[in-house]
Amino acid sequence: MRLVVDADDWEGAGGWNEIENYSWTQKRVFAWQEQWGLTHCDALTVASRALESIVWSMGVPSDRVFCVPNGVQKKQDAGGKGQEARSRTQDARSKRQYLPPPISCILPPASCILLYTRIFEFAVERVIEILRLVLAQVPQAKLLVVGKGLFGEEKQLLALAAEAGLTEKVDYVGWVRLEELPRYFAAADVAIYPYDDTLINRTKCSVKLIDLLAAGLPVVADDVGQNGVYIEHGVSGFLVEPGDTAAFAAAVVRLLRDRGLRERLAEGAQRRVRQHFTWDRLADSVEAAYRLARGIAGD
Hints:
Rossmann fold; 2 domains; alpha/beta; 6-stranded parallel sheet; 3-stranded parallel sheet
């Protein structure tokens, strides 16, 4: 029997073992299981370049490691439908007629900033500070938050917004069904993707980020881990040095003020996803891993 293992995050030191409420026994078992599996398989697929580096450092031969980040189905990539699809999206955004009340940020003349997130990947205080800095230059801006925290972080986010006097500038809708997401994406002018520079964030790759890019949203993201692989700075989005809140807010302001730039980055994002991150392309690496394992089995 031959074994192919897939690693899409990190459990060990600095990883999920340190933030999840696991028992001592579970932590020991998960850490052992992870290291044993990564070093005893015949072929290994990893979700990020950071994971690739970790397994190399553990002595796994590079020719047995295949980097396979998250991707999208072709039908998710509106860019594949050309200018007609982009025109429909832009027209829809101009009308702002998709979301039910009381989501007020979709109403003109607001500039809608989308935060599509699980929230735990960043310090919520930083999002409030980014919003405060943006509002100082774009007073009509509002933040639309789609998603729910892993550990209830959405409550802290809303409490901090209230404390800062920004309750009316934040619309929180919580978890949204997959089929409803396009309406919320279409309501946004800009998406933000804050990401603390932690080992967990470096080793994972975000489905949510690539969904935003495939939907044709101009994104500002911290340059952490796979974010810097998905986004080509200035071409398919903006990357910011992790933790540089002022630079992050400045990038958001620049996009809100420049519709032409937003449209260029949106088109670049869809093009990059279409060229590099559709599953039919990524599947080639997965198949290569299984071919390797089969070859080893035949030795």
